[in-house]
Amino acid sequence: MIERRPLLTAFAYAILILGLIFAIGPLYLVLCSASVSNQQLLSNGIALLPGPQLIDNLQAVARRTDIGRQLFNSLMVSSLVVIGKLALSSITAFAVVYFRSPFRPLIFWTLFATLLLPLEVRIIPTYAVASDLFEPLKTILQSTGLDTLIASVAGIRIEPSLNLLNTYSGLSLPLIASATGTFLFRQFYQTIPPELSEAALMDGAGPIRFFIDILLPLSKTNFAALGTIVFISTWKDYMWPLVVTSQENMRTVVLGMATFLPTESGQWPEWNLLMAAALFAFIPPMIVIALMQRWFVKGLIGVGK
Q1: Deepest of 129, 215, 242, 255, by most Cβ within 10 A of its Cβ?
Q2: CA angle at residue 13 from 12 to 16, to 5 degrees?
Q3: Mean pLDDT of all residues in the chain?
């Protein structure tokens, strides 16, 4: 039975239109500001109507910055983080839910507590590790005296060193470990009936086969939802790429947009070129959302098993 209430329908449409304005409005203003001159923006404020200089501004951005390289760097880093985080989170959640251990609650809540430590809080020790991946190992060897013992016995001095700055590994590895994905996969795995794992065990399926042949196909919507969210959050990340990169060829597209901001007193910001660069940066996430929309929505509302 369908109830027809004109006032309720009109109110629902009003809410939808208001949400659409809040969602599309900023994108429209970016497009308008990217299609006018910078002098017009500085004189009249933000543009409310499109202008005739969109192509010229896009070409100016392509001449002033290596936008292709920056887009490739952002795409590479975001893809590595998505792959690493999905793999690590799904396997960790599988171990937490299906492996019986007296330390399981302690392990899970320890992982959950790391949610309280975002990257901004631990950025200094993370940078120290990225500048030399083996620095913790060297510290342990020196504090325990093992480096001296090995040098006296074997005649060699162990000083391992691996610099991850200005590399894709350095840009992606610190962002892979996250308790959020583990928590989401754990909650999903707990909704799967235990009879399913018991049936798989009776059919001779081991833990690895149960995980690959049964759990992974059931989790495809969760992979799509979490992967989309992680891709977008990594794509727009500004702080960590700013800290870990100093070479122009390793800059991401978000750092490239900062090229058009003033760096000296008295210098005017080039808002029109900044908005044009934002249009370049806007395209890949929109493609990802368009391709993953169907699975993304199912993953968020918890259907698709």
Answers
A1: 215
A2: 90
A3: 85
Structure token digits, residue 272: 């029109």
The Cα–Cα gap between 36 and 46 comes to 10
With H, G, I as helix, E, B as strand and everything else as coil, classify residue 215. helix
For the record, the structure tokens of 284 come out as: 């890949």
Helix-helix angle 123-131:168-176, to 10 degrees: 140
Which pTM was predicted? 0.84
Tell me the one-letter amino acid at 258.
Answer: A
CA angle in degrees (0–180, nearest 5) for 233-239-240: 80
| Residue 41 near residue 271 (C-beta atoms within 8 A) | yes
Output the CA torsion sign for 176, 179, 181, 182: positive
Gap between the Cα atoms of 237 and 217, Å rounded:
30
What angle do the packed helices 271-301 and 54-64 form, to 10 degrees? 90
Looking at residue 145, its pLDDT comes to 79
For 166, the token pair is 């200005």
Residue with tokens 């989790």: 219
pLDDT at 2: 57
Q: Residues in the chain with pLDDT < 70?
A: 1-4, 299-305
Tokens for 267? 């210098």
**DSSP category for residue 213:** I
Over residues 10-50, the pLDDT tens digits come to: 888 999 999 999 988 999 999 999 999 988 888 888 888 88
- Sole residue written with tokens 């060297």: 138
